Give the backbone structure.
Amino acid sequence: MTKTFCMLMLTGALAGAFAVSSGAAAKEITVALASTFTTMDPYDAGDTLSQNSAKSMYEGLFGLDKDMKLKNALATGYEVSKDGLVYTVTLRKGVMFHDGTEFKADAVKANFDRVTNKDNALRRYTLYMNIAKTEVVDDYTVRITLHTPFSAFINQLAHPAGVMICPKSLKKYPGKQIAFHPCGTGPYILKDYNPSEILHVVKNPNYWQKGLPKLDGIYFKPVPENSTRVAMLRTGEAQFIFPVPPEQAKTLTGSDNLEVTVSPSIIERYVAFNTKTKPFNDVRVRKALN
C-alpha cells in the first residue's frame, strides 16, 4: 500500500505573509508539529520532525529536490575514482557560517571525522561508517575515501543528517552540547530553542542564495494533540500543521481558506520493541501486538 502524508496550510494567512512589502511588519509563520524535538544535532537525530526543522539552519554538500533528484548544495561537483573508493568533492566558495567564518574543506573533515568516530556514539554513525578517512586537498576541495565501494554514496551525503556544522561550535560545545547551539550555513539562524516548547529561527542576512529566504522567521511549535493542532490552524495561530490527522483531512479539505496537500511519502511509522526482554521474547506476544 502506498504511504502518504498530509500537510495543511492556511492559504489566506500564508499569502498575506508573502505579499507584504519588505518595509512592512515582519513576515513570520508558525508551524505546528505533532511531537517535541529530540535534538538539533542532525548527526544524532532519528526522527523526521527534528531533522526537518534543523534543515532550516543546516545544509549539506548535496541535497534532493522536490522530485527526489540529486542537486548540488554546498558542493559544486564531484569525481569518483575508477575503483569507486575515492570521492573528490569541490566546494562552493563564498559561503559563510552563522558565526561569520567561511565554509571550507576543514569543516567537511571536522564533521565527518566526528560522525565516523564510534566513541562519539552518534545515531548516524552507521550511515557514514563506510567512510575510511576525510582529507583536505585545499580550501575548496575535499577527498573522501571509503572502506568499500558504494555507488549510492553521494545520495548518502544528501541525507538530512549529512550537514555542515560550524567547526568552531563543534570545539566550543563538544559531545551532545552542540544540540543546543546550532550553527550552520542555512537560510535561518537560531533565535530561541526549548525542545518541548519552541524552535524560533530568523532570517540569515548573509545567506549565499540570493533572494532567499522569503520569510523573516519561523516558529516551530510542538503540538502533540491533534485537535489542538487543527484548532490553531482554523484560528490562524498556525499557518502550517504536520501531519494532518487522517480522520479530519476530508472535513478540512472543504474549507475555503485551507489547503490540504497529500503526497507520496517515504516515512514509515512503526513500534519497535526489544525481543530479548520479557514479554517481547515470546513470539505469541509479538503476534498479538501485530
Q: What stands out?
A: The longest helix spans residues 105-115. Residues 1-6, 8-25 have pLDDT under 50 and may be disordered.
